[in-house]
Task: structure prediction
Amino acid sequence: YAQDYDERFPHGYVYGTGPEAGGWYTFIGPYIKNTQILICPSQNVTVTCSYGVSYNNMFTDTTSGPRGCKLGAIDAPAEALLLGETATAAGGSTWYYYSPKRYPYPYDVAPYNRIPNPGRHNDGSNVAFADGHAKWVASQTMISNSWSGWTAQPASAVQ
Result:
């Protein structure tokens, strides 16, 4: 995608109804051979995508053009969270942006602003970074590391 769009990432979401509208997963669609890679095999509800883009200003909502952050603008791409597993948002809709407050729970229920349970994979989640590598990250690391500019609160802190 980036090679075709002036070394830029896609936006997280472009609002509207035209051909440029849609989510990041729509923009990278022509570049992937199998859309099943967008859905975690452990996801227990039917969704379009199990992963969400980071809120760390690399991706922002917009009303025009699928143009996101330039690859070269990221100081430490191996440390910049690009995609992370997301949970089903409260109310049943899927949240397509990674945010610690929407961190995946074993039951895919996302109470706002808290993390009552560990991630869906051995107390952690799979995440992808801006340099292209992906790895499992422990729940405690996801909670304490504010990749998105927001630090999640453990359930005990908000009850």
User: Anything to note?
Assistant: The radius of gyration is 15 Å. The chain has one domain: 13-158.
